[in-house]
Amino acid sequence: MLxxxxxxxxxxxxxxxxxxxxxxxMFWTLDAICASGFNPQDVIVVIGYKVDLMRSWLKxxxxxxxxxxxxxxKNEMFSSIKAGIHHLPEGTRNxxxxxxxxxxxxxxxxxxxxxxxxxxxxxxxVYKDKRYHPLLIPEPMIEAIRCAPLNxxxxxxxxxxxxxxxxxxxxxxxxxxxxTPDDLKKAxxxxxxxxxxxxxxxxx
Length: 204
Known about the structure:
Helix content: 25-40%
Number of helices: 7
Order of helices and strands: EEEHEHEHEHEEEHHEH
Radius of gyration: 16 Å
Strand content: 15-25%
Mean pLDDT: 94
Shape: globular
Distance between the termini: 36 Å
């Protein structure tokens, strides 16, 4: 599940469509999700701000994506998680929650999280001793979120850290949410380096 409903007021732009190296921010995140092994038809994208514009861009990316509108998107992230969960297929065992403004998250990180999936425990990446997104949440928590009131936060629902499965990752992308112009510059410079390294690797 990709959360892409916010306005991104600090960037003075529809944040999820803000180009990074010529590609909308959320496309980088979607590409990482699909490169980790997800089929587009299994990805739910939750939108809220400028739904028509967002929907048309998402269809350009892949018409098979499941696009869900969150009418309560101004109620912060938890409302988007609830909206997405209401559209999960019956009997879903785990759901991966990815933030659309984390364009640097590596497919390898998502794969490492999925490898640790557990029917009862939250799986969370750890970078430099701090916990971040994407999160893999189990069925009991999916059901708890489904029933929780809108004014809750994800933090209210999370088990204590010692009850989660924590996965150390070598990925600064989990620690960078693009919220400000400085974040955007940082993301651009890191992605440029990664692309150069990938090109050099192909050349050898």
